[in-house]
Amino acid sequence: MKRFHSCLLRSTAFILCILWTGCADTPESLAEELVGKIDELIDVLKTIDDKESAEDAKGDLESIVEDINDIGKRLKDLERDMTMEERMESATKLVEEHTLDMVKAANALKMEMQRIENSSYADEIGKILQSIDIPR
To answer: Do the Cβ atoms of 64 and 41 come closer than 8 Å?
Structure first.
């Protein structure tokens, strides 16, 4: 369970990091891409209701995590090339335009993770989600 809670906190931090730092090919496109990936993740988590469905979902979850990690890599690359002023402008624009979408996605993800957390398959799912590489 400890691993699952850690994953929940890391995932939420990652979502907020993406939202507030401006990070992709363009900040807007990355925010939209990330929300889409989180929605995919939530859809897959919703299909999990027993050990067998958890096993069936592993491949999809791993693929989505890989995509999210790619978004994180692109964040690091973009930030490397941005000035502090550009980061601040980007973050302000993202907050204005995408906060609601990101908060909805984060809350929906949290609800699904809480639903799963006391199950017999929580550790397996938590291990996969914990492999999300959160940029620092």
So the answer is: yes
Burial pattern 50-65, b for ≥16 Cβ within 10 A else e, equals: eeeebeebbebbeebb
Residue with tokens 């791993």: 62
Q: What confidence tens digit (pLDDT) does each residue in 1-59 have?
A: 666 556 555 655 555 555 544 444 786 787 788 889 999 999 999 999 999 999 999 99
Contact status, residue 21 vs residue 91, Cβ threshold 8 Å: yes
Residue 74 is encoded by which pair of tokens? 């692109």
Burial of 69 (0-12, 13-18, 19+ CB in 10 A): middle
pLDDT of residue 21: 47
Is 135 in contact with 11 (CB distance < 8 Å)?
no
Residue labelled with tokens 């979850």 = 61
The structure's pTM equals 0.74
- Give the integer Cα–Cα distance in Å for 124 and 130: 10
**How many other β-carbons are positioned within 10 Å of the β-carbon of residue 106?**
19
